[in-house]
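Example record

The entry below shows one chain as it appears in the dataset: sequence first, then structure tokens.
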Amino acid sequence: MGLRYRKRIKIADGIWLNLSCGGVSISMGGPGATLNLSSKRGATATFGIPGTGYSYQVPLHQDGLTRRPVTHIPATSHAQEVASAPVEEVAEIGMADLQDLIRGSYEERKLLTAELTRRKRAYDWRSTWVDYTAGPLFRFIFRKTTARMKAWVSRYKAAVEQVEEILENHGLTFDWSLSPAIVAQYDKVLKSFNAVTQSRAIWDIVGIQYIDGKRERTTAEASFNRLPVYFSASRPTYLPTLKGDDYPLVPKMQNANGADMYIFPGFLLVESPKNFAVISIADIKISYSDVSFQEDRAVPSDANITRYGWKYENKNGSRDMRFKDNKQIPWVKYGRLNLKSDGGVKEEYLFSASVLSKAFAGEFYRLALAVQKENELESLRAT
């Protein structure tokens, strides 16, 4: 996929440190002539006519989506856990450069934020002192000290504003050179995701236990251990929004027992409170199925009740008369989304709005296909 990311850090006049997906390099010079030193490409000289746009370089060296409907019930015990591998293990080598850039930018922001906090405290303390001594009782006693403090207040205010301005513009700016097909498909993902966030209930399936229907006296095939979560438009802590960002907010899928996932046009950013990983969307296996769920809790208003059954049933679905506390329970149609990758992603979600969730799963699936196709075309162009 045509994704480029870069960052330029000024070291001194005419010398810049360049960070990009291709690695790290240093540029020296100015308009008309530049020398670039790269660990991967070696030394390259660029000559051009400033203001014309003309320049030249001289190297200075010789699975299908839909599954059949199945039936499920709430989990009991001994359920098999459904969870991704630790964040440290799911990143891909192909995304390592991008991940390093994001981490470096995040660490820089942490230092800047700490410096801003320090300056604000100093500014607040001096401002409070000036306000306290401004009264008639202390004005004469602390005349000289107050004058010096006012000067310090002015300086610290300017210092605070300086760091705030740096923070506002600090971070990674993405040059999303996406194909029209990926842009169009990502827009569809955003639209379908916005719709599915309106589901009355979304659960993270954190455990699955396959059951013996005959022994348990039920027609269900498996039981789920599920926890409520929220889907929303947000932005990861490690990759905050900057001015001019084409996608200031991206889909966020909350995870009840692991790292949250953020969907960018070409990659997933998986983020826990202390770490993150970057994974190509092309390597995510996405599948969807409608499930018939025996709901023992309140049925969400947007869910479709398909029939009513019994907690304990005979093979033909009739009530098992041997159980006195055998109550009638609704069977509800839910949507089930499954996300997996060879690198360790393993997440499943359950939605009360089956139609909306199926639409989102379909658009997400087609985005993965579009990115995969674009990657294959780029590989052919490179050969």
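Notes for this example: The chain has seven helices and 20 strands. The longest strand covers residues 328-340.
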